[in-house]
Amino acid sequence: MSARAQQRFDEALALHRQGQLPLAEILYRDVLRLAPTHAQTLFHLGILQQQSGRLDEALASFDQALAQVADNPQLHLRRGVALHQLGRFEDALAAYGRALALRPEAADVLNNAGMALHKLGRHDEAIAHYERSLALEANAAETEMNLGVALYELNRFEEARARHERALALRPGSPDVQANLANALLELGLHQEALELYRKVAQARPRDADLQMNLGNVLRDMHCQEEALASYARALALDPQNADVHWNQAIALLTMGDLARGWREYEWRLRMPAMADVQRTFAAPPWRGEVPLSGRTILLHAEQGLGDTLQFCRYAAVLQAQGANVKLEVQRPLVALLRGQPGLGDVIAKGTDPGACDFHCPLMSLPFACGTTLDNVPAPVPYVRPDPALAQRWSQELGPARRPRIGLAWSGNAANPNDHRRSIPLANLLAGLPRDASYWSLQKEVAPEDLRLIEADRRIQRFSENTFEHTAAQIASLDAVVCVDTSIGHLAGALGARTFVLLAHSADWRWLSGRTDTPWYPRHTLLRQPAPSDWASALGRLAGELATVG
């Protein structure tokens, strides 16, 4: 490179370091007119473009530089960062991989590769990269925090807490670390500690709508619903169209029993990015109660979990009573159970062509469309009945009852992000069960460690078949059901079975707040944790309730 070009490059670099980006860019381009393939200039121009948010231009500059010096690990790293910022995480990971091939012990590249893996949902691999990075650079606060976030995503909350606490020791007062630590504390049931941290972060970031939402969420979990609503109001004042805030506000309102406002806000779920996979489009227009349905055909379609479908399919009968021709689309595991049930209409499997319809409505929007309040919840149980032949078969297989027969479901879908709160360790449940009853597992899946407990305890028997239609018939031969907040509780409720539901301290909105009964299922008794993780108190109440079964 000529002396003139070198001088221009040095001047550009100095201006760049001083933050004078427009002037620096002019000089970088002067250098490239004199030396079009100068890799260092292309590299620094790419960094400047990256800092200016012009990511596609930055990527082009890095590619031109790499055409000259393909073995430069820093160039591959920077190119990976640009791809990461563009949301091209697979490509970013490949770029980080090339940087690591040239410099395997690069702690910063390992951290960045971990972040790309995290974005791709490959959390175990991300953790391995973060740990390798920390082995090389032990006092990297950002890597500690990233590792904590990955552990949090895997529900390893105690480990996440430890990592965030270390990150905070390395970077005292960091709002990012404090917010992530608060998230972990909240999941560990340490609500007051989480609340204090969220409030500190809120002081540092008064215009952060998501932070105000998180503050509202912890207040909601602490049963401080009015304070939670105030936090959501502050969040919406900052970001009125934030669907996540509206949805969380809906949860607080529904928990309080303010169903009219709650259902309206709950409609915002359909705009949430996290709900993109359940949003549906049909040729028929949506229906939310605006027009009469008499003589019209409406498709009601399942939207979330199996329990949600079992709870809200009751509205098919409500619409049929208004003269509607109802087509009910449900998850495949529920088709055999629900097909042919009186009042539910034509039941089809999700993914099946529903044919011509005048309107459609997701099941979870029906309470809003029908104007449901606490005073008019449609609860004519049973609204689901077992197949008579299956019911007779299981009644014969169980034979005469010598002792009360109780069905058990102690854990839900492990993929549910709230499962660690709502599920109860089987060992805890066994310790609280009276011995003068017979117990039957209603679990769809039983974890290997639970199987070992069942075999050792010998009080719990297992049915040979556990599809929903068989489980419904089995429940018909039992005296009661004990369950946590899973689809089994909704199935038992729809069947009108006597049911005892063990609920976490911060239970789902549908169980309202502080009640031992529910308007959705007249034969349910709710047994709540009086404090986070306190299953012992709830199980103590259960023992007393089961003494009345027989």
- Based on DSSP secondary structure assignment, what is the total number of beta strands? 10
The helix/strand class is alpha/beta
Q: Could you give me the name of the CATH homologous superfamily of the largest domain?
A: Tetratricopeptide repeat domain
Strand content: 5-15%
**Number of structurally distinct domains:** 4
Percent helix: 40-55%
What top-tier CATH class of the largest domain fits best?
A: Mainly Alpha
Task: Please state the average pLDDT score.
Answer: 94
How large is the radius of gyration?
A: 29 Å
Distinctive features:
single chain, 550 residues, alpha/beta, Serine Threonine Protein Phosphatase 5, Tetratricopeptide repeat, 4 domains, four-stranded parallel beta sheet, 10 strands, 54% helix
Task: Summarize it.
Helices cover 54% and strands 8% of the residues. By secondary structure, it is of the alpha/beta class. The mean pLDDT is 94.
Provide an overview of this structure.
- This protein is 54% helix and 8% strand.
- With 550 residues, the chain is α/β, with parallel strands linked by helices.
- The chain folds into 4 domains: 187 residues, Serine Threonine Protein Phosphatase 5, Tetratricopeptide repeat, CATH 1.25.40.10; 73 residues, Tetratricopeptide repeat domain (Serine Threonine Protein Phosphatase 5, Tetratricopeptide repeat, Alpha Horseshoe); 73 residues; 159 residues, Rossmann fold, CATH 3.40.50.
- The strands form 2 sheets. The chain has a 6-stranded parallel beta sheet with strand order 7-6-5-8-9-10, sandwiched between helices. Strands 3-2-1-4 form a 4-stranded parallel beta sheet.
- α4 runs antiparallel to α5 and α10 packs antiparallel against α11.
